[in-house]
């Protein structure tokens, strides 16, 4: 059974289901797991056994934990954490058997990181998902991050001007756990009420994480300012230039292929299927990009990417990171 994050609190008012599977954003998953553990204690489940899957983990530990009776004769919580989301063949088989015969008098909590679509289609994940309650916690996208920050500040009876809100969002993007810590810091440093922009700027550190996927998303959405900020962050973090070029060129090639196909009368859905683009959010981003880009503009961008490739290889002179920015701006504008 799949459950929306917003429905978790309502379900925690009922007797706990025997199996819970939480996955997604680190902070949101951690908070949900804490809420579930607190609920278990309120319901009289005082004993908890924590199992962390690492290289030395033995999967028979799970069956032993499930088979051992509670020391107090009551229900028991098994807290199974799989940080890599890769249980391996033995682990996958064990999880399937476990889900098929859940131990009585036991609540099992399985926590996982954010999962890709391949992992969600594995037999073991389907087995535990069908046997228990599954909740996916997605990181708020950049456009919803200010609203998320506003809600967190409101919970501690604080607010900030729109300018300060953008400042916080820019400095914590891609790092929700650090964002949470910065918001808590504002609560500790200042009292309740509206904070000034100068107070926020003095307190909030630049804890943003910059990665290639963020750059690809910004490119597709046509967010030129975000592309510039991400490229500057990637450069500062020492990201390899060939990897950055690959990310930009790969998105441009994909868009050029889709643009050429649609211009020749092929349905976009069929093109997505042929290119194995199944993620709905990515499909939506590509549709938005195609709406503003022509075949000629994409061909020009491909030629530009080829010239940057020669710069990266040292065959021609030029400032590679400046060219990355020019290439991104070329794709962002209509």
Overall description:
This protein is α/β, with parallel strands linked by helices and 334 residues long. 58% of the residues lie in helices and 11% in strands. The protein has 17 helices and 8 strands. The strands form 2 sheets. Strands 1-6-2-5-4-3 form a 6-stranded parallel beta sheet, sandwiched between helices. Strands 7-8 form a two-stranded parallel ribbon. The longest helix has 23 residues. The chain is globular and about 70 Å long. The two termini are 43 Å apart. The model has no long low-confidence stretch (mean pLDDT 90).
Short note summarizing the structure:
With 334 residues, the chain is of the alpha/beta class. Helix content is 58%, strand content 11%.
